[in-house]
Amino acid sequence: MASSTTEPSPPVTKVQLSGKIIAITGANRGIGLAIASSCLTNGASRIYSLDNSPPSPDFTSLSTQYPNQLFALHVDVTNEASVQAGVDKIVLEAGALHGMVCNAGRTKHKAALDFTTEEMEALWSVNVYGSFYSARCAARAFRRQEGVKGSVVFTASMASYRPNKRVPSAPYGASKAAIRNMTHTLAMEWAPYNIRVNSVSPGLVKTAMTYWVEEQPDWEQQLAYYGGMPRLAEVEELGGAYVYLLSDAASYTTSIDIPVNGVIGIC
């Protein structure tokens, strides 16, 4: 008599995203757009940017390079109903959702004694609440789909490990530390649903928010002091970590953070 036990599928050993539909918050520019590009390069079927700002010229260029694969949805991550509507639209339009990158974020460098309540609330509403809402809406979608083993990847920061000595920001670092704790807690909660939850912690990356770093008069001295790779990361250098965590090759990888921080001593 034949056994009714279903044999488990063999582990996937190739890191690629063939056929996957992935949502990325804050992907109309910057790090989010670089993640989108990496996902498309590695075979993703469709990428949806959930963002409340207009698509950048670079986004338009990438969408031309990958016709009918890159889409922008106007979503306010600080409003869970807005995020839910975006996720529902993706599933309805594309037929599935396999991964969510909770990347939208804000930064503000300011002395702790000078931060206003309004500034803290604005920062945390995107970094913490927005990330939580995005992950939760994705998890609901994953659970509704038969056979989907979803992946959530948060963008944390090296500032969650240690302060930036030159421009401290306690509220920003605390918001990113909250994301890393959220990663571990949600990974534990959602493992029974075959949902993996991980994060990536970039160090200093060359974006519009870090233009000032290389303009410091003693930047070369800082690099010599801290060691590590003597430069900022290009945004494209972050993508590999996200691609791995979103891929089926990471099927037993959950509750981890991957630091991408070539300048070892600086967050």
From TrEMBL:
GO molecular function: oxidoreductase activity, acting on NAD(P)H, oxygen as acceptor; oxidoreductase activity, acting on the CH-OH group of donors, NAD or NADP as acceptor
Gene3D superfamilies in the cross-refs: NAD(P)-binding Rossmann-like Domain (3.40.50.720)
Protein keywords: NADP, Oxidoreductase
Coiled-coil portions: none
InterPro entries: NAD(P)-bd_dom_sf (IPR036291), Sc_DH/Rdtase_CS (IPR020904), SDR_fam (IPR002347)
Similarity comment: Belongs to the short-chain dehydrogenases/reductases (SDR) family.
Protein name: NAD(P)-binding protein
Species name: Decorospora gaudefroyi
